[in-house]
Amino acid sequence: MAIEQYSEEFEINPGEIVTGPARADRRTKELVKRLRPGDIAVIDHADIDRVAAENLIRCAPSAVVNASTSFTGRYPHMGPLLIAEAGIPLIDDVGSEVLDQFVEGEELRIVGGDLWLDDEFLAAGQRQDADDLARRVILARADMGVELEAFAINTLEWIRREARLTFEPLVLPPLDCDFRGRHALVVVRGHDYRSDLKALRPYIREFQPVLVAVDGGADALLEVGLRPDVIIGDFDSVSEEALACGADLVHHVHPDGRAPGREQLLGFGVSYVEFIAEGTSEDVAMLLAAEAGAELIVAVGTHASMVEFLDKGRAGMASTFLTRLRLGPLLVDAKGVNRLYETRLRRRDLAMLIGAAFLAMLVVTIVSEPLHVFLNGVWVVIRDVWLRIADWVFG
User: Which of 64, 185, 236, 275 falls 20 to 30 Å from 84 in CA-CA distance?
Assistant: First the structure.
């Protein structure tokens, strides 16, 4: 059956038909690197997290087709709702096999909730509605007790197993960058990282902190014209441009020997050092800065809530909890620093500024010899005119 006949038979609204070149990847963060406006993004991403959604929206695809379920209801995340509210059609549950049924760049057509390649029907999906997604987010928020309990149990279990490792002395790798006596800005490409970096511009200019990027945080810094001093993580989402920027490259290795980024680094052929520590890469970045002698650590885009950790696919936040216990007052959130640097123009300050300017003009007038000569000349002219008028009036 041709698409036109299919559309007429099932009374598909023309506004529900979308065409565009296909771009597919099972890893959303890899797909957005090559996604262009007007493309149809084909992903396999259960429970699309907020950061992934924001990156997809920024690429402006004509539609997003998900092989998995974008919102399972397991916890109240905002990713799918953001996509729908941006006016981008979101098609769910088309099945993972669809990613192998076309060649990237071929033109796909979405008719209602179904996916077509030319006149060949590929898969049926469910078109998501913004109002329905908003309702489901509210329901998930009200019904997350079971998920919260499982999250807390997992966190406590990992704390029991990791606490000793977290507080053991760490062996620092050799670094060209010197942290001693300086602030460190740890940048993760997480929630609100762009707005936080923009707001922190005055702080960065004044304090010149060591810029520590966690994986994709390196590209986040380059986007705003800043060069990272240190890049740390498993290097699964770092561009070649960031690798070549001159930063110290630190590979995060777990105490049990797991080194998920070693193959990538060897493949890139770059020089790097290894840092052995337990926890997430963002936690290890903070520990590195603290052990290297930073006097304050400012965190940008890091994960601090249960929803953010579930967005990242983690069932607990033990390492983050323990890391924050270890760092104590050394660690502050970027939003707190931002509030310290907010600019507010008060009326009193404006009045004082105008008063100071007037006073400065008055002082200049008093001490300036040329102005004295000018004012004396004006006074002589006024006095001469006044005397002439008086002679004429009183004869």
Answer: 236
DSSP states of 354-390: HHHHHHHHHHHHHH-HHHHHHHHHHHHHHHHHHHHHH
The dihedral sign for the CA sequence 251, 185, 192, 330: positive
Residue 253 near residue 275, CB atoms below 8 Å = yes
Rounded-to-integer distance, Cα 79 and Cα 50, Å: 4
Q: What is the 3-state secondary structure (H, E, C) of 256-323?
A: CCCCCCHHHHHHHCCCCEEEECCCCHHHHHHHHHHHCCCCEEEEECCCCCHHHHHHCCCCCCHHHHHH
Residue 138: is it exposed, middle or buried by C-beta count within 10 angstroms (0-12/13-18/19+)?
Answer: exposed
- Asked whether 143 and 78 are in contact (CB, 8 A), the reply is no
**pLDDT digits 0-9 by tens, 144-173:** 666 666 666 666 666 666 666 566 678 899
Whether 35 and 59 have beta carbons less than 8 Å apart is answered as: yes
Is residue 142 within 8 Å of 72, Cβ to Cβ? no
How many CB atoms are located within 10 Å of the residue 395 CB? 5
Q: Which helix or strand (DSSP H or E) is residue 122 part of? A: strand 120-124
For the stretch 305-362, pLDDT in tens is 555 555 555 544 556 667 777 787 888 877 666 555 555 555 666 677 777 777 776 6
Contacts of 262 (CB under 8 A, 6+ apart): 251, 253
318-327 vs 145-166: helix crossing angle, rounded to 10: 50
CATH of domain 3-138: 3.20.19.10
Strand partners, 214: 188, 232
Cβ neighbours for 383, distance < 8 A, ≥ 6 positions apart: none
Answering whether pTM is above 0.70, one says no
Residues 6 or more apart in contact with residue 247 via CB below 8 angstroms:
213, 218, 227, 228, 229, 230, 231
